[in-house]
Design a protein that fits this description.
The protein has helices at 6-10, 20-39, 103-106, 129-134, 139-155, 160-163, 168-186, 206-277, 279-294, 315-318; strands spanning 41-44, 49-54, 57-62, 65-68, 75-80, 86-90, 92-95, 98-101, 107-109, 115-126, 190-201. The protein is an alpha+beta fold and 336 residues long. Among the domains are: 22-80, no CATH class; 86-203, Tetrahydropterin Synthase, Chain A (2-Layer Sandwich), CATH 3.30.479.30. Helix 5 packs across helix 7 (168-186) and helix 8 (206-277) crosses helix 9 (279-294). Keywords: Coiled coil, Hydrolase, Membrane, Protease, Transmembrane, Transmembrane helix.
Length: 336
Protein backbone atom coordinates (compact mmCIF):
# COMPACT_ATOMS: atom_id res chain seq x y z
CA UNK A 1 0.00 0.00 0.00
CA UNK A 2 1.38 3.47 -0.94
CA UNK A 3 1.73 6.20 1.77
CA UNK A 4 0.46 9.61 0.67
CA UNK A 5 1.53 12.87 2.39
CA UNK A 6 -1.63 14.77 3.03
CA UNK A 7 0.18 18.16 3.19
CA UNK A 8 1.68 17.64 -0.23
CA UNK A 9 -1.57 16.46 -1.65
CA UNK A 10 -3.36 19.50 -0.34
CA UNK A 11 -0.66 22.10 -1.66
CA UNK A 12 -1.82 23.95 -4.78
CA UNK A 13 0.23 23.58 -7.96
CA UNK A 14 3.09 26.15 -8.32
CA UNK A 15 3.26 26.97 -4.64
CA UNK A 16 6.80 26.85 -3.07
CA UNK A 17 7.50 24.83 0.02
CA UNK A 18 7.48 26.74 3.30
CA UNK A 19 10.87 28.48 4.03
CA UNK A 20 12.14 28.27 0.42
CA UNK A 21 11.90 32.03 -0.15
CA UNK A 22 13.89 32.64 2.99
CA UNK A 23 16.64 30.30 1.82
CA UNK A 24 16.76 31.96 -1.60
CA UNK A 25 17.00 35.37 0.05
CA UNK A 26 19.85 34.31 2.30
CA UNK A 27 21.67 32.76 -0.66
CA UNK A 28 21.30 35.90 -2.76
CA UNK A 29 22.49 38.02 0.14
CA UNK A 30 25.51 35.79 0.60
CA UNK A 31 26.40 35.99 -3.11
CA UNK A 32 25.95 39.77 -3.08
CA UNK A 33 28.14 40.04 0.01
CA UNK A 34 30.85 37.96 -1.65
CA UNK A 35 30.69 40.16 -4.74
CA UNK A 36 30.97 43.29 -2.63
CA UNK A 37 33.91 41.90 -0.65
CA UNK A 38 35.59 40.75 -3.88
CA UNK A 39 35.15 44.20 -5.44
CA UNK A 40 36.85 45.84 -2.45
CA UNK A 41 40.23 44.39 -3.43
CA UNK A 42 42.12 45.06 -6.63
CA UNK A 43 45.59 44.34 -8.00
CA UNK A 44 47.87 46.77 -9.81
CA UNK A 45 50.52 45.26 -12.11
CA UNK A 46 54.14 46.36 -12.21
CA UNK A 47 53.72 48.43 -15.40
CA UNK A 48 50.49 50.05 -14.21
CA UNK A 49 49.34 52.86 -11.97
CA UNK A 50 45.77 53.09 -10.66
CA UNK A 51 43.70 56.24 -10.16
CA UNK A 52 41.23 56.01 -7.24
CA UNK A 53 37.88 57.79 -7.80
CA UNK A 54 35.64 58.51 -4.82
CA UNK A 55 32.10 59.31 -5.97
CA UNK A 56 33.61 60.02 -9.40
CA UNK A 57 36.27 62.44 -8.13
CA UNK A 58 40.01 61.73 -8.30
CA UNK A 59 41.24 61.24 -4.74
CA UNK A 60 44.47 59.30 -5.00
CA UNK A 61 46.80 56.96 -6.81
CA UNK A 62 48.12 53.48 -6.06
CA UNK A 63 51.14 51.60 -7.32
CA UNK A 64 51.91 47.94 -7.96
CA UNK A 65 50.47 45.43 -5.49
CA UNK A 66 47.19 44.35 -3.79
CA UNK A 67 45.03 47.22 -2.51
CA UNK A 68 41.67 47.83 -0.79
CA UNK A 69 38.91 50.22 -1.84
CA UNK A 70 35.32 50.86 -0.92
CA UNK A 71 32.78 49.07 -3.11
CA UNK A 72 31.16 50.72 -6.10
CA UNK A 73 29.58 53.28 -6.30
CA UNK A 74 31.56 54.71 -3.41
CA UNK A 75 34.96 54.13 -5.02
CA UNK A 76 36.22 52.81 -8.32
CA UNK A 77 39.66 52.28 -9.85
CA UNK A 78 40.97 53.24 -13.32
CA UNK A 79 44.21 51.51 -14.31
CA UNK A 80 46.69 53.13 -16.70
CA UNK A 81 49.83 51.76 -18.37
CA UNK A 82 51.91 54.51 -16.83
CA UNK A 83 55.35 52.93 -16.40
CA UNK A 84 55.65 51.16 -19.75
CA UNK A 85 57.22 53.21 -22.55
CA UNK A 86 54.68 53.48 -25.37
CA UNK A 87 55.11 54.41 -29.02
CA UNK A 88 53.09 56.53 -31.41
CA UNK A 89 53.98 56.33 -35.09
CA UNK A 90 53.65 59.22 -37.51
CA UNK A 91 53.43 58.47 -41.23
CA UNK A 92 52.75 54.75 -40.92
CA UNK A 93 51.03 52.12 -38.78
CA UNK A 94 52.61 48.87 -37.68
CA UNK A 95 50.74 45.71 -36.70
CA UNK A 96 53.18 42.93 -35.95
CA UNK A 97 55.47 42.69 -38.98
CA UNK A 98 53.01 44.49 -41.27
CA UNK A 99 53.69 48.17 -41.96
CA UNK A 100 51.03 50.32 -43.61
CA UNK A 101 52.03 53.78 -44.91
CA UNK A 102 49.80 56.75 -44.04
CA UNK A 103 50.56 59.32 -46.73
CA UNK A 104 48.33 62.06 -45.30
CA UNK A 105 50.63 62.13 -42.26
CA UNK A 106 53.95 61.44 -43.98
CA UNK A 107 53.83 63.91 -46.90
CA UNK A 108 54.66 67.54 -46.08
CA UNK A 109 56.15 70.66 -47.67
CA UNK A 110 59.62 71.98 -46.89
CA UNK A 111 60.67 75.61 -46.61
CA UNK A 112 61.79 75.73 -50.25
CA UNK A 113 58.38 74.39 -51.40
CA UNK A 114 59.44 70.81 -52.06
CA UNK A 115 57.55 67.70 -50.97
CA UNK A 116 59.18 65.34 -48.51
CA UNK A 117 58.03 62.13 -46.81
CA UNK A 118 58.81 61.87 -43.09
CA UNK A 119 58.17 58.85 -40.85
CA UNK A 120 58.72 59.22 -37.11
CA UNK A 121 58.26 57.35 -33.83
CA UNK A 122 57.32 59.17 -30.64
CA UNK A 123 58.29 57.35 -27.43
CA UNK A 124 56.36 58.44 -24.33
CA UNK A 125 54.89 57.39 -21.01
CA UNK A 126 52.38 58.74 -18.50
CA UNK A 127 53.95 61.06 -15.94
CA UNK A 128 50.72 62.34 -14.29
CA UNK A 129 47.68 60.04 -14.16
CA UNK A 130 45.24 62.74 -13.10
CA UNK A 131 46.18 65.05 -15.97
CA UNK A 132 46.24 62.12 -18.40
CA UNK A 133 42.69 61.04 -17.49
CA UNK A 134 40.92 64.37 -17.06
CA UNK A 135 42.71 67.27 -18.79
CA UNK A 136 42.43 65.92 -22.37
CA UNK A 137 39.57 63.82 -23.72
CA UNK A 138 41.84 61.58 -25.81
CA UNK A 139 45.50 62.05 -24.84
CA UNK A 140 46.93 59.64 -27.44
CA UNK A 141 45.03 61.28 -30.29
CA UNK A 142 46.12 64.67 -28.99
CA UNK A 143 49.74 63.46 -28.97
CA UNK A 144 49.47 62.17 -32.54
CA UNK A 145 47.98 65.41 -33.84
CA UNK A 146 50.47 67.51 -31.88
CA UNK A 147 53.41 65.46 -33.17
CA UNK A 148 52.20 65.65 -36.78
CA UNK A 149 51.68 69.43 -36.55
CA UNK A 150 55.08 69.94 -34.89
CA UNK A 151 56.92 67.89 -37.51
CA UNK A 152 55.23 69.84 -40.31
CA UNK A 153 56.11 73.10 -38.64
CA UNK A 154 59.79 72.24 -38.18
CA UNK A 155 60.32 70.68 -41.63
CA UNK A 156 58.36 73.55 -43.18
CA UNK A 157 61.11 75.91 -42.00
CA UNK A 158 63.97 73.84 -43.46
CA UNK A 159 65.24 73.33 -47.00
CA UNK A 160 64.79 69.92 -48.58
CA UNK A 161 68.51 69.35 -49.13
CA UNK A 162 69.25 70.02 -45.46
CA UNK A 163 66.29 67.96 -44.22
CA UNK A 164 67.27 64.77 -46.06
CA UNK A 165 71.03 65.00 -45.38
CA UNK A 166 72.63 66.72 -42.40
CA UNK A 167 69.54 68.14 -40.68
CA UNK A 168 67.90 64.96 -39.40
CA UNK A 169 69.34 65.19 -35.86
CA UNK A 170 68.63 68.92 -35.63
CA UNK A 171 65.01 68.40 -36.76
CA UNK A 172 64.55 65.62 -34.19
CA UNK A 173 65.78 67.87 -31.39
CA UNK A 174 63.51 70.73 -32.43
CA UNK A 175 60.44 68.46 -32.73
CA UNK A 176 61.10 66.99 -29.29
CA UNK A 177 61.51 70.44 -27.71
CA UNK A 178 58.25 71.70 -29.31
CA UNK A 179 56.35 68.58 -28.21
CA UNK A 180 57.58 68.97 -24.64
CA UNK A 181 56.38 72.58 -24.70
CA UNK A 182 52.93 71.55 -25.96
CA UNK A 183 52.52 68.77 -23.38
CA UNK A 184 53.50 71.17 -20.62
CA UNK A 185 51.19 73.91 -21.91
CA UNK A 186 48.09 71.70 -22.07
CA UNK A 187 49.09 69.54 -19.07
CA UNK A 188 48.28 66.27 -20.79
CA UNK A 189 50.18 64.15 -18.27
CA UNK A 190 52.33 62.72 -21.08
CA UNK A 191 56.12 62.74 -20.86
CA UNK A 192 58.00 62.67 -24.19
CA UNK A 193 60.94 60.27 -23.92
CA UNK A 194 62.37 60.48 -27.44
CA UNK A 195 61.61 61.39 -31.05
CA UNK A 196 63.18 59.29 -33.81
CA UNK A 197 62.77 59.76 -37.55
CA UNK A 198 62.75 56.53 -39.52
CA UNK A 199 63.04 58.23 -42.91
CA UNK A 200 63.14 61.76 -44.27
CA UNK A 201 63.25 61.49 -48.04
CA UNK A 202 61.58 62.84 -51.18
CA UNK A 203 58.68 60.90 -52.71
CA UNK A 204 59.45 57.90 -54.91
CA UNK A 205 60.37 58.05 -58.60
CA UNK A 206 62.96 60.09 -60.45
CA UNK A 207 63.02 62.71 -57.71
CA UNK A 208 64.00 60.12 -55.13
CA UNK A 209 66.72 58.74 -57.38
CA UNK A 210 68.14 62.20 -58.03
CA UNK A 211 68.24 63.04 -54.36
CA UNK A 212 69.78 59.66 -53.57
CA UNK A 213 72.61 60.52 -55.93
CA UNK A 214 73.00 63.88 -54.20
CA UNK A 215 73.10 62.11 -50.83
CA UNK A 216 75.70 59.63 -52.07
CA UNK A 217 77.84 62.45 -53.42
CA UNK A 218 77.59 64.30 -50.12
CA UNK A 219 78.56 61.18 -48.20
CA UNK A 220 81.52 60.64 -50.52
CA UNK A 221 82.53 64.26 -49.96
CA UNK A 222 82.35 63.80 -46.20
CA UNK A 223 84.39 60.61 -46.48
CA UNK A 224 87.14 62.39 -48.40
CA UNK A 225 87.10 65.27 -45.93
CA UNK A 226 87.45 62.81 -43.07
CA UNK A 227 90.31 61.02 -44.83
CA UNK A 228 92.06 64.34 -45.46
CA UNK A 229 91.61 65.32 -41.83
CA UNK A 230 93.00 61.93 -40.77
CA UNK A 231 96.03 62.41 -43.04
CA UNK A 232 96.50 65.92 -41.66
CA UNK A 233 96.33 64.65 -38.09
CA UNK A 234 98.97 62.03 -38.91
CA UNK A 235 101.36 64.29 -40.83
CA UNK A 236 101.31 67.43 -38.68
CA UNK A 237 102.52 65.75 -35.46
CA UNK A 238 105.19 63.90 -37.44
CA UNK A 239 106.35 67.11 -39.14
CA UNK A 240 106.37 68.89 -35.79
CA UNK A 241 108.49 66.09 -34.35
CA UNK A 242 110.96 66.28 -37.24
CA UNK A 243 111.15 70.07 -36.92
CA UNK A 244 111.76 69.77 -33.18
CA UNK A 245 114.50 67.20 -33.81
CA UNK A 246 116.19 69.55 -36.32
CA UNK A 247 115.99 72.43 -33.85
CA UNK A 248 117.48 70.32 -31.09
CA UNK A 249 120.28 69.11 -33.39
CA UNK A 250 120.99 72.67 -34.50
CA UNK A 251 121.06 73.79 -30.89
CA UNK A 252 123.49 70.98 -30.04
CA UNK A 253 125.75 71.93 -32.99
CA UNK A 254 125.59 75.55 -31.91
CA UNK A 255 126.68 74.71 -28.37
CA UNK A 256 129.42 72.38 -29.65
CA UNK A 257 130.85 75.02 -31.95
CA UNK A 258 130.69 77.67 -29.26
CA UNK A 259 132.55 75.39 -26.85
CA UNK A 260 135.18 74.53 -29.52
CA UNK A 261 135.60 78.19 -30.36
CA UNK A 262 135.99 79.07 -26.69
CA UNK A 263 138.60 76.29 -26.38
CA UNK A 264 140.48 77.59 -29.41
CA UNK A 265 140.40 81.12 -28.01
CA UNK A 266 141.69 79.91 -24.66
CA UNK A 267 144.44 77.92 -26.41
CA UNK A 268 145.39 80.94 -28.55
CA UNK A 269 145.47 83.21 -25.52
CA UNK A 270 147.74 80.74 -23.68
CA UNK A 271 150.15 80.57 -26.67
CA UNK A 272 150.06 84.36 -26.96
CA UNK A 273 151.07 84.75 -23.32
CA UNK A 274 154.02 82.41 -23.94
CA UNK A 275 154.87 84.32 -27.10
CA UNK A 276 154.98 87.60 -25.24
CA UNK A 277 157.33 86.07 -22.68
CA UNK A 278 159.79 84.56 -25.24
CA UNK A 279 158.90 85.29 -28.85
CA UNK A 280 161.85 83.49 -30.49
CA UNK A 281 161.45 80.25 -28.59
CA UNK A 282 157.70 80.19 -29.02
CA UNK A 283 157.99 80.94 -32.73
CA UNK A 284 160.51 78.13 -33.25
CA UNK A 285 158.37 75.70 -31.25
CA UNK A 286 155.29 76.56 -33.27
CA UNK A 287 157.20 76.04 -36.51
CA UNK A 288 158.51 72.68 -35.38
CA UNK A 289 155.06 71.53 -34.17
CA UNK A 290 153.55 72.60 -37.46
CA UNK A 291 156.16 70.72 -39.44
CA UNK A 292 155.55 67.62 -37.35
CA UNK A 293 151.90 67.81 -38.19
CA UNK A 294 152.47 68.42 -41.88
CA UNK A 295 155.36 65.95 -42.30
CA UNK A 296 154.81 63.33 -39.64
CA UNK A 297 157.33 60.82 -41.13
CA UNK A 298 160.03 63.29 -42.19
CA UNK A 299 163.43 63.53 -40.48
CA UNK A 300 164.30 67.09 -39.62
CA UNK A 301 167.93 68.29 -39.14
CA UNK A 302 168.71 71.79 -37.91
CA UNK A 303 172.07 73.44 -38.77
CA UNK A 304 173.49 76.89 -38.24
CA UNK A 305 174.33 78.82 -41.45
CA UNK A 306 174.84 82.29 -40.10
CA UNK A 307 178.15 82.74 -41.90
CA UNK A 308 176.39 82.76 -45.25
CA UNK A 309 177.91 79.55 -46.53
CA UNK A 310 175.90 76.57 -47.55
CA UNK A 311 177.02 73.50 -45.74
CA UNK A 312 176.56 70.09 -47.17
CA UNK A 313 176.43 67.29 -44.73
CA UNK A 314 175.69 63.77 -45.92
CA UNK A 315 173.76 63.08 -42.76
CA UNK A 316 171.60 60.38 -44.25
CA UNK A 317 174.71 58.46 -45.23
CA UNK A 318 176.21 58.83 -41.80
CA UNK A 319 173.15 57.54 -40.06
CA UNK A 320 173.12 53.85 -39.22
CA UNK A 321 171.18 51.81 -41.74
CA UNK A 322 167.93 50.37 -40.54
CA UNK A 323 168.50 47.22 -42.60
CA UNK A 324 170.35 44.36 -40.89
CA UNK A 325 173.86 43.58 -42.22
CA UNK A 326 174.17 40.37 -44.23
CA UNK A 327 175.93 37.52 -42.48
CA UNK A 328 179.32 36.44 -43.94
CA UNK A 329 180.89 33.01 -43.63
CA UNK A 330 181.53 29.74 -45.25
CA UNK A 331 178.54 27.84 -46.40
CA UNK A 332 177.86 25.08 -44.06
CA UNK A 333 180.59 26.35 -41.67
CA UNK A 334 180.50 28.38 -38.47
CA UNK A 335 180.66 32.16 -38.35
CA UNK A 336 183.99 33.86 -37.47
Amino acid sequence: MDIIDLNTARRPAGQLPPGMLRKIGWGAAAVLLLLIVYSCFYTVQEQERAAILTFGKYTGESRAGLHFKWPYPIQQVVKVQAVRVQQTTIGYRQSGDTITPVDEEALMITGDENIVSADAVIQWNVSNIRDYLYNVENPELFLRNAASATIRSVIGSQKLDYAITDGKTDIQDKVRANLLELQDKYQTGIQIMDVKFQDIEPPGGQVEEAFREVTNAREEKNTKINNAAKYENERIPKARGEAQALLEKAEADKKSRILNAEGDVAKFNAIYEQYKASPDVTQSRLILETLEKILPNAKIFISDSKDGTVKYLPITELLPSSKPAPQQGNPGGSAK
